[in-house]
Design goal:
Length: 393
């Protein structure tokens, strides 16, 4: 069998081993093949052109991708245009949306429970924590999750004398009046849309979209969470690297690093736009989507916010660690040779380690593990740390 036919047979057998990660290396000549023609046209060299040692190392498979540090997506806060004032009382005739904006927070301001989000007619509209917005005016006799939101917040703000459940009683109304007195607004004992803004937790003002003196109806401001995190548009080819809870390292623009953890992996991929259609790229297909370069949204949380320094928003580099192999034996990938019968081997060139009576090259079959940065994990009979092996290419 000629060397060319032998090589073809080897490559066919390697196709069955695509999962090892070595096929591309063979096809590009990185891995040698037993039976290759000698490089000098027929004269077999005395030994491999170079050698390497079998080393015990830790291999880490990782990928670094670009990301963005920030506070996450902003959501809008709107004052209901229902014709009611911020205290629930009827608006003055002809007043659009019920009153006018008389105070707005600064961009970057932190708003916590009980603090004003904005003010209408000099009456503060405070923040309450919860999941159910105020969608009706609450009075004694009402029940529901919106009642529970109000009562739970009153307890957290220090008001007592009622049972925190989902029933609005006269005792609840008394507590609301005490709270309204503290806010400096009419003590009605009722609360409804426009009297407070409900959000899951404290918020950070991202932008102010309204202006002072404008009618209090519609968008007022945009806000975000208070913790900085990292967003990544991850190419789908790296999807296997991440899952909820995956650890990552974030490198900031000044070179410092901080630990992060994946909190969300989106399930809907966004395709990269591609230009097509007519000769000028302006045809009907010009805005088509290309499956290559499609990405998934990935969100990461940073527990140690102090390590982020003063960065409010910045481009960052995110390194995901998919797999770690501690204390394994490894050699350079180009120390591998492909066997005619299939599989891989290394050529032992350490005379003290050669088999007794051996007169030819000492090839030892190996089982391959992880490939990382030009190195490959190997194991097998006679493969030990410190063994000298040939590097044929």
């Amino acid at each position: 069998m000629t060397a060319r036919r032998r090589l073809r047979a080897v490559l066919v057998s390697l196709a069955l081993l695509a999962g090892t990660g070595a096929v591309g290396a063979v096809a590009t000549g990185v891995i040698g093949v037993i039976g290759d023609d000698p490089p000098d046209g027929g004269h077999t060299p005395a030994g491999p052109p170079a050698t390497a040692s079998v080393e015990r190392v830790s291999l880490v498979r990782s990928q670094t991708v670009p990301g963005t540090l920030g506070y996450g997506a902003a959501t809008s806060v709107e004052h209901p245009g229902t014709g009611a004032t911020a205290t629930g009382t009827p608006a003055a005739p002809g007043t659009p949306g019920g009153g006018h904006l008389t105070w707005l927070p600064d961009v970057g301001a932190l708003v916590q429970r009980g603090q004003p989000v904005y003010a209408v007619d000099e009456r503060p509209v405070p923040l309450l924590y919860g999941a159910t917005p105020l969608y009706r005016e609450l009075a004694p006799g009402d029940e529901g999750q919106d009642v529970a939101v109000v009562e739970n917040n009153l307890v957290a703000l220090g008001y007592t004398g009622f049972t925190a459940d989902d029933a609005y009683t006269s005792a609840t109304a008394d507590a609301v009046r005490a709270w309204q007195k503290a806010l400096g607004i009419p003590e009605t004992g009722t609360i409804g849309p426009g009297d407070a803004v409900v959000a899951p937790e404290a918020r950070r003002v991202d932008s102010v979209t309204a202006t002072l003196g404008r009618a209090a109806s519609g968008p007022v401001l945009d806000w975000t969470g208070t913790a900085r995190g990292v967003s990544v548009a991850l190419e789908v080819q790296y999807e296997d690297l991440v899952d909820t809870g995956t650890k990552a390292t974030v490198e900031l623009p000044d070179g410092t690093t901080v630990d992060a953890e994946v909190t969300r992996v989106g399930s809907v991929a966004t395709a990269a736009p591609s230009v097509g259609g007519g000769a000028d790229g302006q045809g009907p297909q010009a805005a088509s989507q290309d499956s290559e370069g499609a990405t998934l949204p990935v969100e990461l949380a940073v527990s140690d916010q102090g390590k982020l320094g003063r960065y409010q928003a910045a481009p960052v580099e995110v390194t995901f660690v998919a797999e770690t192999r501690e204390g394994v034996l490894a050699v350079p990938v180009n120390a591998l040779v492909a066997l005619r019968e299939g599989g891989y081997a290394v050529e032992v060139v350490d005379p003290a380690a050669s088999a007794p009576g051996s007169t030819g090259p000492d090839y030892r079959a190996v089982t391959l593990g992880m490939f990382v940065n030009g190195r490959v994990e190997i194991s097998g009979p006679g493969i030990t740390e410190g063994l000298t092996v040939g590097v044929p290419r």
